[in-house]
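Shipment paperwork, digital attachment
Item: protein structure file
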Amino acid sequence: QVQLVESGGGLVQPGGSLRLACAASVSPLNAYPVAWFRQAPGKEREGIVCIGSNDGVDGSTYYSDSVKGRFTISRDNAKKTVYLQMNALKPEDTTVYYCSMSLLEHYFCSGVGWPDEYWGQGTQVTVSS
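Attachment content:
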């Protein structure tokens, strides 16, 4: 059973930064893709960032237009954790953030399809002055 646990959410002022963490029970984590989604009340869950399998390189990454240039995904294989560094946060980034993954090797993140087999419980991010 795959377990994902998010942490790092909280309250931040507009323009500020937060780093979310997604701790996984899977090893080696870099063999599999991990994604971050967010879901605002009354809206569909939105895939925003994905990091793919580490096939000899750092792993493909994909960013949605809404976060490109502001958010960065990274992975610490030894800690079995994926991070989402969020900079230049805006009030519209306020919502619950979820990490997800699938046990699919050689996965390339392209924004067409998402690794969404397993989910964490979510962490709230609030951007407000």
